[in-house]
Each structure stands twice: as structure tokens, then as C-alpha cells.
From TrEMBL:
Ranges for domain SAM-dependent MTase RsmB/NOP-type: 31-347
Alphabetical list of PANTHER family matching this protein: NOP2 YEAST -RELATED NOL1/NOP2/FMU SUN DOMAIN-CONTAINING (PTHR22807), SAM-DEPENDENT MTASE RSMB_NOP-TYPE DOMAIN-CONTAINING PROTEIN (PTHR22807:SF16)
Superkingdom per UniProt: Eukaryota
Keywords on record: Methyltransferase, RNA-binding, S-adenosyl-L-methionine, Transferase
SUPFAM superfamilies (UniProt xref): S-adenosyl-L-methionine-dependent methyltransferases (SSF53335)
Name of this protein: SAM-dependent MTase RsmB/NOP-type domain-containing protein
Similarity annotation: Belongs to the class I-like SAM-binding methyltransferase superfamily. RsmB/NOP family.
Taxonomic placement: Eukaryota, Sar, Alveolata, Dinophyceae, Suessiales
Pfam families: Methyltr_RsmB-F
Record-linked InterPro entries: MeTrfase_RsmB-F_NOP2_cat (IPR049560), MeTrfase_RsmB-F_NOP2_dom (IPR001678), RCMT (IPR023267), SAM-dependent_MTases_sf (IPR029063)
Region span, Disordered: 327-382
Active site: 292
């Protein structure tokens, strides 16, 4: 089984972090217990034809040490490239030929839930905003055509390497170095950078991302920048063997969102990323918003604000008209054990002219009236999902996701 180097270790949480924790559902003791829980390692096996015995042999582990993650099986049933296994720390992933061929891919199990919930069709074109270093992008590229956007060149370069390692270049239309809050097919495109003449010839066969108006993608994944307190693996890295925060400075550097002022900025960034993602979504398309933070302010509150406000700006005809949206129903103390199926819950709409109690442009209201819908609508197929397991279980919560559909 996985080596358990976290269990029993103590973590001397710094003051700034303790203060941050007050914005999450976890007390210091509970979070500390999470950090102490056994470290887990997962891989996605992309080739569905590989047997357990072959995978075990190639990763140099005993076949009994290879455990398929039960709650991701539902996604793998529909998309066989999304099989996820828990593996022991000792597994020789990088030394394996499966790694070289791109058939094995280190993941957080919960990343699969975001992709599985988006559930693209092979003919879909999906946009991932905040796509680097490419874990979910590669999952998506196994299923459909993908375009990725990220603001960090170094991370985007890693994403490009992953795409190449997995031989997915033909499914990735572009990797754009740009600000996801305002991206419109502009910025620097990294997939076509440094191509050989032969590559370039092949690239020409792929349609370029055209300069486009909104409303182009069948699906959008907004994997927003966040405080990543849900990514325990990353947090643990900042403590030394004795659990001391000798790297306190670097923890704060690495988590610039600890202070309250920065948290407000972060929530605004997340809100804007979500709004832009929604603008780029086709009618009938699906959007997943997810983070690796436990904080409600970075999840439910961003969604709540989006549902109430997004698109209601002056002159924007693509209103999200859902003034009657319910607050996410899930109380944070009742983290769901595993994914709940979409409920098909439909957000009640108000007439466009009364939207948010503000006057709206007459022409927009008239268009909305003719469509009989109060403008563009959002159907929240599930108000707020806690993806993963409750915190007492092994595959525990890391990502929170919300599925939003744009319906005509
Ligand atoms: C949680 S990580 C994304 C992980 C990635 N989706 C994956 O599955 O590998 C968040 C990413 O957001 C990016 N980011 C932060 N601000 C951004 C912005 N304004 N526009 C686009 N990307 C941004 C960061 O560079 C970082 O790579």
C-alpha cells in the first residue's frame, strides 16, 4: 500500500494560514487532521486495453496494490480513457515505458470528476480557461477537441509538453498565453511555436482558432486560480520533516491569497474568469467551474454572484437572467459522499424588464420577450457539487464543481 509519510506528522500551521482557514469549512484541528491523513497517489491510465496485470508489471507494483478509484468508475464507463487508479508511493511511474508513451498520467483523482461531469461528445470543441499545466486539458483532448488558455507561460509550456508526450497535438487546437478574463482568440499561441516544417504542414490541416465572437464553444471548463488549500499535497510541501514552517515565507509567497484583501481580489478574478467562460459558451453548452479550494467564497459565492449578476452589464445582450437563483443548497457541514447526479433543477426566471430590479435596455427586453425566456438563461443542473468523498474517506474532497448549462 501507499507509504504513509504524512500520518502522525505534525504541521505547525502559521498564523496567516490559520486566519485563512476561518474562510473555509475547516477548523484548524480538522485541517490539521486532513494534512496528517495518508498521502495518496493516483494515475490515469489512458489505454483502456491495458489489463491490471500489465499495468502493475509496468509500474513495478503488485497487482493488489493497484486500486481503481471507485467513484471515478462511472466516468470511465462512459469514457474509457478516464480510468484512475490509486498506486503506492513506490510505483515506478516515470521509469515506466507507459510514461514515455503517454499512457500513464499522474492526476488528482478529483480532476477526472470535472472532465467526466463536463462529459463532452467527440465532436465537441471545449475551452479550458486556466488550463496549465495541462492535466485536465489532456483528459479532455482524449475525448474531443480542446483549446486552452492560461496566463502563465512556464506552466503553459509544461502543458504543451504533456500534450506532445500524449500525442494529442491534433486534438488541441491551441494553447493561448492570455488573460482568461478577456481572451477572444488573441494572445500568443504556443502549440504552433517551434514546430518543424513537417509539423507545421500538419498544423495547417487543423483549423485555426478564428478571431471569434462569443458563443463558440460546446463546453467550457473554468479551472479557476484559487488558494489551493484543497490540494493537501501542495500544502504539505511547505513543512519540513518536523512539521515546522521553516518555509513560511515561501508558503506565503506561494499562497498570495492568504490575506483578506487578497482573498477579495481572488474572488473577483474567479468571478471574471467564470463570466468570460460563460460568454464563450454556445447555447446548449455546458460549463464546469471548479477550484481546489475548500473556501465557500471561492466556490459557492462566486457561482451565486455569477448567477445573480453575470452578463447584466449595460449593453450586454447575453444576459444570465436568473435573479431568482437559489443559493447553493448544500450546507457545508453536509459534504456529499460522492457525486450526486444532476437534478435538472431550473432556475426560476423573472421577466427581463425587472431583472435584478434594474431597468434593462428596451431592445434587449423585447428580444427576450419574443424568445419568451427572459433572455439567455442558465439552467443549473446541480446547484453545487462537492466532488469527491467526504473528509473521513480516503478519496476525499479536493475539487468543488458546479455545472451550468446554457439553454436556448
Ligand atoms: C488550478 S491551476 C489550473 C490547473 C489545470 N487546469 C490542470 O488541470 O492542470 C490554475 C491556473 O490558472 C492560471 N491563471 C491565473 N490567473 C489567470 C488568468 N487571469 N487567466 C488565465 N489563467 C490564469 C494559473 O497560471 C494556473 O495555471
Amino acid at each position: 500500500m501507499a507509504q504513509d509519510d504524512s500520518a502522525g506528522r505534525s504541521f505547525d500551521l502559521p498564523e496567516a494560514f490559520l486566519d485563512y482557514l476561518t474562510s473555509t469549512p475547516y477548523s484548524a484541528e480538522e485541517y490539521h487532521a486532513l494534512l496528517q491523513s495518508p498521502e495518496e497517489r493516483y494515475v490515469r491510465i489512458r489505454d483502456p486495453t491495458l489489463s491490471l496485470a500489465t499495468i502493475a508489471q509496468r509500474l513495478q507494483v503488485d497487482v493488489t496494490e493497484l486500486v481503481e478509484v471507485s467513484w471515478t468508475k462511472r466516468f470511465a464507463q462512459r469514457h474509457p480513457t478516464l480510468r484512475v487508479f490509486r498506486i503506492p508511493e513506490t510505483a515506478a511511474v516515470r521509469q515506466s515505458d507507459l510514461y514515455d508513451s503517454g499512457d500513464v498520467f499522474g492526476v488528482d483523482a478529483s480532476s477526472i470528476a470535472c472532465v467526466g461531469a463536463l462529459d463532452p461528445e467527440p465532436c465537441d470543441h471545449v475551452l479550458e480557461i486556466c488550463c496549465a499545466p495541462g492535466t485536465k486539458l489532456c483528459c479532455l483532448a482524449d475525448l474531443c477537441t480542446v483549446t486552452g488558455v492560461d496566463i502563465n507561460r512556464q506552466r503553459l509550456t509544461v502543458a504543451r509538453s504533456q500534450v506532445k508526450r500524449c500525442k494529442l497535438s491534433n486534438s488541441v487546437k491551441g494553447l493561448w498565453l492570455a488573460d482568461g478574463r478577456s481572451w477572444a482568440g488573441d494572445g500568443q499561441e504556443l502549440m504552433s511555436e517551434g514546430l518543424t516544417p513537417r509539423d507545421r504542414k500538419q498544423t495547417r490541416k487543423r483549423p485555426k482558432v478564428e478571431a471569434f465572437a462569443p458563443d463558440v464553444f460546446d463546453g467550457v471548463l473554468v479551472d479557476a486560480e484559487c488558494a489551493h488549500d484543497g490540494s493537501l499535497k501542495h500544502i504539505r510541501k511547505f513543512f519540513d520533516e518536523r512539521g515546522k514552517t521553516s518555509k513560511l515565507q515561501s508558503l506565503e509567497e506561494h499562497m498570495p491569497w492568504l490575506s483578506e484583501a487578497k482573498r477579495t481580489e481572488l474572488a473577483q478574478l474567479q468571478f471574471e474568469l467564470l463570466c468570460r467562460g460563460f460568454q464563450l459558451l454556445k447555447e446548449g453548452g455546458k460549463l464546469i467551474y471548479c477550484t481546489c479550494s475548500f473556501s465557500e467564497a471561492q466556490n459557492e459565492e462566486v457561482i451565486r454572484r455569477f448567477l445573480v449578476n453575470a452578463g447584466a452589464g449595460a449593453g450586454d445582450e447575453r444576459h444570465v437572467d436568473c435573479a431568482g437563483a437559489e443559493a447553493p443548497a448544500k450546507p457545508r457541514s453536509a459534504v456529499s459522499p460522492g457525486l450526486r447526479p444532476p437534478t435538472g433543477h431550473r432556475v426560476p426566471l423573472r421577466p427581463a424588464a425587472q431583472r435584478h430590479g434594474r431597468p434593462v435596455h428596451r431592445a434587449a427586453a423585447e428580444r427576450a420577450r419574443r424568445r419568451g425566456s427572459g433572455g439567455g438563461m442558465v439552467r443549473r443542473t446541480d446547484s453545487s457539487w462537492w466532488m469527491g468523498r467526504n473528509k473521513t474517506q480516503r478519496e476525499r474532497l479536493i475539487l468543488v464543481g458546479t455545472l451550468i448549462s446554457r439553454i436556448p
